[in-house]
Amino acid sequence: MSFDPNAFIIILTGSMIAISCGLLGVFLMLRKMAMTGDAISHAVLPGIVIAFLISGSRHGLAMVIGAGLVGIIATVFIEYLSNKVKLQSDASIGITFTSLFAIGIIMITFLANQIDLDQDCVLYGEIAYVPIDLWITGSGTIMGPRVTYLSLINLTLVSLFIYLFFKELKISTFDKEFAATIGLSTVGVNYGLMGMVSYTTVSSFEAVGAILVVALMVVPPATAFLWTKNLKRLIQLTVALGILASFLGYYLAFFLNSSIAGAMASVAGFFFFLSVILNRKQIPAIKKKLSKMKVA
Amino acid sequence: MIEQINNPVVEVHDLMVSYGQNPVLWNIDLTLPAGNLIGILGPNGAGKSTLIKAIMGLVEANSGYSKIFDQDLNHVRNRVSYVPQRESVDWDFPASALDIVMMGTYHHLGLFKRPGKKEKELAMDCLQKVNMKAFAKRQISELSGGQQQRVFIARALAQQADIYFMDEPFAGVDMSTEKALVSLFQEMTATGKTVIVVHHDIYSAGKYFNWLIMLNMHLIASGPTEKVLTEDLLTKTYGGKLSMLTDIGELIKKSDFNPLKN
Ligand SMILES: Nc1ncnc2c1ncn2[C@@H]1O[C@H](COP(=O)(O)OP(=O)(O)O)[C@@H](O)[C@H]1O
Ligand SMILES: [Mg+2]
User: Domains in chain B: how many in total?
Assistant: First the structure.
């Protein structure tokens, strides 16, 4: 097979998105907040629409800020419902994310004739268009595929966030109360993480859509967790799985002539079930993990 | 029988705590002396954990306040250590015993700094003190309950604090380990540190602690062990728990149990 620059760009972009999602997903999983990640990735929809209305563009900083803010609002709301109103946490998540998502859908339908933004685009994305969607500067210079730049910036910021706050993330994930007693702002760490989840969702939705973002946040970390009980190893394996899903997903889609994002998610899912079978001894532990993830 | 002292290391004043509509602690007023091994006794649901959490600022008080070293907790966090109940965390977390003990050194490090060689050595020393050095590299999910408990205590030792609050540190540990931990705590108090331990066994409490707090939503007693470990106060503390009461009565009848004798 000869070198195909389009394939390279798609796989590179897919890998960078998968790594960003996986890095955050490891901590979401360990915090039993996989569903919160899911909720946020859907809840940012109204933020995307409002930012679009204000800035008139599907790209750019307004989008990231708008969605980031709604993501934080969703987090605050979920915490409020479960801590102050004493609603069960799964119900709090469900209510928050369905309401915000519904608001977003209503906005899109109402404004359908005014804006170039549809549900399909938000939910499923289209990574195949990445190579032809170019970033052209004001002076007309062609810089290259826009979404690839976005995902590079996103990956850099997510990696930096996790690198700089590794100690804080680790301690507040393992033992929140202990972390609070040594004066760490556990609330701050939580909002930081949720802010990064929101930002990553927005940065990636054009390429892979909100649903695949969730798959990439949940599946590779859960797969890696079947193989290792060492946090650094867990992160490395998650990164490797993300790259592998992107690479194999591209060629699977190519040969099946289907959606690349869908194929990436399928490959990730395939590795998960393969790991389950190979780790048959550990099946009870996985069940425990999954049931915990559901209620969190 | 509530004995107040001068120059306390811990002062709790008119503390009231409730979860939603349910009050759990009423008007707790106590002062604790430095350099003592202090036990907190009370039946399940008495509010023992809640009292510690309120002092550590983990639950909000409806009224009242607490002070440590005559200061707000925020000013003395580096001198205070807290060991939560073992079940409060998920031991499936991917970390080794050493990783967890290193967390005890984090507050000295500050933001962005990573633990280095010095922190690692300290953590190993602390594991040694609880006889867990051989398990330093072991994943915490593969440790027994008693070993996990000892990892928690080692993490607290790594904080090098002056006052320690431990919530049921003996839960799930075997008798010989419990004895070893008690002598470790006694060594610590001999050097002026204060160790406050939630304990559920009234029979050994008399031997272990030189100061006792008895709690059942209200503060029943706080004072030197020889003054407060009486049938009357135990009955008040464990009041409604009938089986417990008969046990105490029988034990005292058999005169196996004499709190005044060691
Ligand atoms: N987070 C919470 N929310 C609501 N009620 C609680 C919570 N934690 C404890 N309680 C209740 O407060 C009471 C005291 O609990 P706790 O302080 O844990 O008692 P102890 O440690 O003495 O067994 C119990 O009735 C318990 O059910
Ligand atoms: Mg308790």
Answer: 1
Give Cβ neighbours of residue A271 (< 8 Å, ≥ 6 apart). Answer: A219, A220, A223, A241, A244, A245
Task: Give the number of the atom of ligand 1 that is nearest the alpha carbon of residue B53.
Answer: 17
Tell whether B120 is covered by a domain: no
The overall pTM is greater than 0.90: no
**C-beta atoms of B103 and A174 within 8 A:** yes
Query: What strands, in cross-sheet order, belong to the sheet with B22-32?
Result: B22-32, B10-19, B63-68
Go through the domains of chain A in sequence order and give each one's CATH number: 5-213 (1.10.3470.10)
First and final C-alpha spacing in chain A: 45
A180 has a chain B CB within 8 A of its CB = yes
Give chain A positions within 8 Å (CB) of B77. Answer: 181-183
Structure tokens at A218: 């949940």
Cβ distance B106 to A182 under 8 Å? yes
Amino acid at B22: N
CA of B89 to the centre of ligand 2 (A): 14
**ipTM at complex level:** 0.89
Residue to mutate, B15, B16, B19, ligand 1, most ligand atoms under 8 Å from C-beta: B19
* Domain-embedded: residue B210: yes
With respect to residue B54, please indicate whether it lies within any of the assigned structural domains: yes
- What CA–CA distance (Å, rounded) separates A133 from A135? 7
CB atoms within 5 A of ion ligand 2 belong to B 49
* Helical spans, DSSP H, in A125-230: 146-164, 166-174, 176-181, 186-225
CATH number assigned to the domain comprising residue B238: 3.40.50.300
pLDDT tens, N- to C-terminus, chain A (296 residues):
567 888 899 999 999 999 999 999 999 999 988 887 778 877 877 887 777 777 776 666 777 777 778 888 888 888 888 878 888 878 888 898 888 888 888 887 887 666 666 666 666 677 777 887 788 777 888 878 888 998 999 999 999 999 999 999 999 999 999 999 999 999 899 889 988 988 888 888 777 877 788 899 999 999 999 999 899 999 999 999 999 999 999 999 989 988 888 899 999 999 999 999 888 765 556 656 655 554 44
- Structural domain for B248, as ranges: 1-69+163-171+196-262
Domain membership flag for residue B61: yes
